[in-house]
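Appendix C reproduces, verbatim, an entry submitted by the partner laboratory led by Prof. M.T., so that reviewers can inspect both the input and the predicted structure.
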Amino acid sequence: MTIAAAAPRDYLVRPWAGTWVRDLALIGGAVALTALLAQVSIPVPGSPVPVTGQTLAVVLVGATMGLRRGVAAMGAYVLLGGLGLPIYSDGAGGVAVVVGPTGGYLLGFILAAAVMGHLAERGWDRTPLRTLALGLTGQVLVFAVGVPWLALVAGFAPAEAIAAGFTPFIVGGLVKGAIAGMLIPAAWRVVRRGQRPAEQG
């Protein structure tokens, strides 16, 4: 049984899925995209958490790959980085990163992919406004895990953790949500145009 057979609801990459080989290729591509965007990293003064492109990758993966593939992709990303591959921000890797101050954000990627994938399978990724809401939901979930983890590991008070691990990223989160809101519905229109002749035939 393939992942596709277990997840009958529709999602953007479904036309390219259906076998384990294709599933692995899609998951590998998602890991590579996340690793690439992770290298877009801007330090935040006074915070161990940089501004990165990782959450944009999480939004795109979660909103296009469905629940099972999205979770598999983000789980593989966290696992491979934890094993030492230099795929986290600034080329970092290893268990120390996962259990360090920013590790909660990495684990939040998996939760965000699960929820976003579940909602995308139910049509939340078809229009710009709903996709924007979907992207913002995913990012909020990342912070919902990352900020308390940061407070616990770094010894920050709740207000300090919010100031260091959430507030500096609000504007960037809105921008990433807007990017997803433009790209994903447009991609759906392309997919539907490509499917139309086959359906008519």
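The chain has one domain: 3-193. Additional entries are available on request from the coordinating office.
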